[in-house]
Specification:
By secondary structure, the protein is an alpha/beta fold. 44% of the residues lie in helices and 13% in strands.
Amino acid sequence: AKQATIVAPASPDHQAAKDAVNGLQLRPSTAIGEGIYTALDVLAAVPPDPDDPEKPVPATIVVMSDGESRFGRDPFTAAEDAKNENVPVNTIAYGTEHGTMIDPDSGREVPVPVAPAQLEEIARSGGGDAYQAESAEQLSEAFSEIARSAGVTTEYQEVTARYVGFGLTFAVLASLGMISLAARWP
C-alpha cells in the first residue's frame, strides 16, 4: 500500500506471524521503502536479550510484493540501512505475469503482472535473497527457505533426570506405604 501498517508485533510466536501473513489483504500501490523502515522501527523497540544485552536482536525482513515500489522513501536506501543494522532484507515476488486484481474504486479487473527485477535489486542491496512464488505452495517454500537461512534451529534438551527423579520419589513413597500397611497386618 502507500503506507506501511504493522499487522503483528515482533514476537517469537511463529503462529502469530503465520496468522498475520495469512490475513494480509491486497491493497493498491506499493511503498517498499516505507515497509522496510517500519520493520526497522519495530525491531528497534524489541527488548534486548537479558542474558546478552549487547547482542543484536536476531531478525530478517521479508518483503513480499507483486510489483515495484512507487511511493514513499527509496527502497534501496532502506535496504542498505537495514543491512547496515545487520538485518538482511529478503524479497518474494509473489504473482504471475498474467495476474489481475479488482480495482476497489471502479470494480474493474486490472492487470497486475509480477515485477521481480526491482525486488531482486532490493534483496541484493539488503544483503538478503530474492525469491519468486506463483502459488501458495511456492510461497510456503520461500518462507521455509528464509527461515532456514535466518538460523531457525531446534534445540533438544535432556529431561530424563527430572522424570527419573519423580519416578524414584513415587517408588519410595509407594514402598513406605507398603511397609506401613504390612506392619499392621496380624
